[in-house]
Amino acid sequence: MQLAATDSKKENLERVVSATEVSETSDLLVFPEYCMGYPSEGMSRRYLEDLAEPLNGDFVSKVAEKSKEKQIGVVLPIYERFNRDVFNTAVIIDRGEIKGGYRKIHLFDAFGYRESDLFQAGTDPVLFRVRDLAFGVVICYDLRFPELVKSEVMSGARVVVVPAAWFRGPLKEEQWQTLLMARAQENTSYVIGVGNANEAFVGRSMVVDPLGVKVLDLGSGDRVGFYEIHDNQVTEAREKLPVLQQSTSLNIRCQQL
């Protein structure tokens, strides 16, 4: 769901909830990073403090209700309040059950932006399952760290989901596309990038197959994209291109949600 987040948490929640209505034939619905809200003047700690809530807060709970009603899985990025910290978290919901979340590990301290002034960094990669298919999840800037994606794949992921708010800038769309395709090919896994369509970001949600071929590209603006994942394509890609078998094992364990 390539949504253009506004500065209104209430409006964004309404749009997220209504988006589930067009996805009742899907198994998994993925929303972009910063979908809880993004102000026109740019992100601030005060804005985050006003919007942040725990995993069992109203934002997640209302989406979980729709997830149960529609019997679908949801990846829902939020600003998670935990004690005195705020995390950039992708919440995993499975047919109404809040399974937990992945807290963004690599905060975007680059190109003059300092996400570490806003969020606390997470520490643990996670895997989750939808209809017996194993998924990994990373958030936006995490995509630039191949060892994180590789650790999830080596732990069993067949698909990696990447919610993002990829900032606009010179050649940034090309970087986003190139990195998604590289992570897919080097891990012989599907990679699903879901971009925020707010004017500050590139949008460009896409699906890349296990051989690194882009098979869906939503371009810019508010868009809905559907793609059917075929697990046998992952198996076939790994037989043709056995890079995972030939890789040095990483001593990183993923938490199972």
What does this protein structure show overall?
This protein has helices at residues 9-19, 45-51, 58-70, 146-154, 172-187, 231-240; strands at 28-30, 73-82, 85-94, 97-103, 109-110, 113-114, 126-130, 133-137, 159-164, 190-195, 206-208, 214-217, 255-256. The chain is α/β, with parallel strands linked by helices and 257 residues long. The protein has one domain: Carbon-nitrogen hydrolase (Nitrilase/N-carbamoyl-D-aminoacid amidohydrolase), CATH 3.60.110.10. Strands 12-11-10-9-8-7-13 form a seven-stranded mixed beta sheet, with helices on one face. Strands 1-2-3-4 form a four-stranded mixed beta sheet. The mean pLDDT is 95.
Under CATH at level 1, the class stands as Alpha Beta
> Which structural class do you get from the secondary structure elements?
alpha/beta
Secondary-structure element string: HEHHEEEEEEEHEHEEEHE
Strand content: 25-35%
Oligomer: single chain
> Would you identify the regions where 5 or more consecutive residues have pLDDT less than 50?
none
Number of helices in the DSSP assignment: 6
Computed over alpha carbons, the radius of gyration is 17 Å
Secondary structure topology:
Blueprint: H1 9-19, E1 28-30, H2 45-51, H3 58-70, E2 73-82, E3 85-94, E4 97-103, E5 109-110, E6 113-114, E7 126-130, E8 133-137, H4 146-154, E9 159-164, H5 172-187, E10 190-195, E11 206-208, E12 214-217, H6 231-240, E13 255-256
Parallel strand pairs: 1-2, 7-13, 8-9, 9-10
Antiparallel strand pairs: 2-3, 3-4, 5-6, 7-8, 10-11, 11-12
Task: Produce a short descriptive summary.
This protein is of the alpha/beta class and 257 residues long. The protein is built from six helices and 13 strands.
